[in-house]
Design goal:
five-stranded antiparallel beta sheet; two-stranded antiparallel ribbon
């Protein structure tokens, strides 16, 4: 098991989509699944993340464990997700527009067979076994983000 983990952590293949955004081919099931890197931001899904609400994180900074910026966004609705009193940063309108374009783009790790959005939904399901969501989940319009009620 230890050798298996070491082998997986050494996998660092990076691919690029048609827009030039970078996707990392490594998967760390006991830590996080990195969905994409674009314009200084990283989209990731944590394994067995707290809370039962499907969501992803958008971070910026050198240290992924203690980023300079971190917003948490629901997968099934265009709302920020505040859990644990953390992840309170907000994305600008420009960054939200780029996020939507990125999520709609083809994921090159899949040979262009799926979008980054579809890959993100799969990443949630792979990493959070107790709260799976349908793989056909439509992407909300994140250009119009709301706050939880």
């Amino acid at each position: 098991m230890k050798e298996d983990r070491e082998e997986r952590t050494q996998m660092t293949e990076t691919q690029t989509n048609e827009r030039g955004d970078h996707f990392h081919g490594h998967h760390l099931p006991w830590e996080m699944d990195i969905v994409a890197d674009s314009d200084g931001y990283t989209i990731l899904v944590w394994a067995n993340d707290a809370g039962e609400v499907p969501h992803f994180h958008v971070i910026r900074g050198e240290d992924r464990l203690k980023p300079d910026f971190e917003a948490c966004i629901k997968i099934q609705s265009a709302e920020y997700y505040l859990h644990g009193g953390q992840h309170t940063d907000r994305l600008s309108e420009d960054v939200l527009e780029r996020l939507v374009r990125l999520l709609e783009s083809k994921d090159m790790d899949s040979g262009g067979k799926m979008t980054v959005w579809q890959w993100l939904v799969g990443a949630w399901n792979r990493n959070n076994k107790t709260r799976r969501i349908p793989v056909t989940t439509a992407m909300p319009d994140y250009r119009h983000m709301g706050f939880p009620s």
